[in-house]
Amino acid sequence: MNTPIYIIEETKLRRNLALISEVAAKADIEIILAFKAFALWKTFPIFREYINSTTASSLSEARLAFEEFKAPAHTYSPAYTEDEFPEIVKCSSHLTFNSLSQYERFHSQAQSVSIGLRVNPEYSEVGTLLYNPCAPGTRFGVTADKLPEELPSDIEGFHCHCHCESGADVFQRTLVHIEEKFSKWFPQLKWINFGGGHLMTRKDYNVDLLIKLMNDFHKRYPWLKIILEPGSAFAWQTGPLLSHVVDIVEDKGIRTAILDVSFTCHMPDCLEMPYMPEVRGAEIVEPEDQKCNSQFVYRLGGNSCLSGDFMSSWRFDHELKIGEEVIFEDMIHYTTVKTCTFNGISHPAIGMLHSDGKLEILRHFGYEDYRNRMD
């Protein structure tokens, strides 16, 4: 193809969904899709073959769950607003408040749903502060010292999110802190949501440990329904972003291949975290090896006006040519949701590679998409 495109591979997506469904059955828990990581609604018919619910963080996501996934959402937001709250309730089955003040303000309008409260165990092993929901000064959740001994009668669940692409061993250690802080309130609850970041579809994830942890938790608290809401796990390694070289420039001995995609527009996590994406057919090189006298070494640059819209550096096994494809692996989770139109740069197209090998274009983007965002 001559246009940049995200390609979702149906076979890989179904592989992840089957594993997640199997874990949910063996652990007797509910695992739901977090839209913040994946919201391509044209794939929802496939998802509904394996899961029943989703999680939303805004009115738009709640509507997507209700109208396109055909099931009310488990909704959490750091702050609900008066103008949106009634419609959010209509689109939700579960609704979690971030603070006691938000609960006091809105709970009387949410009696048709199961109400929860986000809690903060003050423990997380997420190393990147940008993604650590329990970092000191966090705006997320209520700490144990601020909870009343007797919860309000309409609070039925706790929501606790501490992970980011974490393993079951991390969850095992985190669970100790959650129980130490909050188990005395468990008899007053009906459910507990352990949030996202459980990367159970990663090859080195200990699925058996996760199942054991959940089964043991059931034995200790048999009345509690357990919910997990991973995002990345569903779309983990389900497809690449295909781009093309449009120019090659050089300055101070550094050679940059400019692409028809943008890190800031299309792969923002690469700059936010940052992390180095995997490029098919290339290997990452150290900064001291970036000079262009190192054979076939290129910095990859985006096509926006942001000076920092680049990442360094990769060694290819040949000289790159204008028009050549550069393929970024594992670019479906989060990237497809977090794209923006800075500089008026169009989104890459979205396609699905079906199990029969046929590529279906789900969406093209153009000027009208950019213009309509400015309405």
TrEMBL record:
The keyword Magnesium does not apply. GO terms for biological process: lysine biosynthetic process via diaminopimelate; nor-spermidine biosynthetic process; spermidine biosynthetic process. Keywords: Decarboxylase, Lyase, Pyridoxal phosphate, Spermidine biosynthesis. CDD domains: PLPDE_III_CANSDC (cd06829). Pfam families: Orn_DAP_Arg_deC. PANTHER family: CARBOXYNORSPERMIDINE_CARBOXYSPERMIDINE DECARBOXYLASE (PTHR43727:SF1), DIAMINOPIMELATE DECARBOXYLASE (PTHR43727). NCBIfam families: nspC (TIGR01047). This is Carboxynorspermidine/carboxyspermidine decarboxylase.
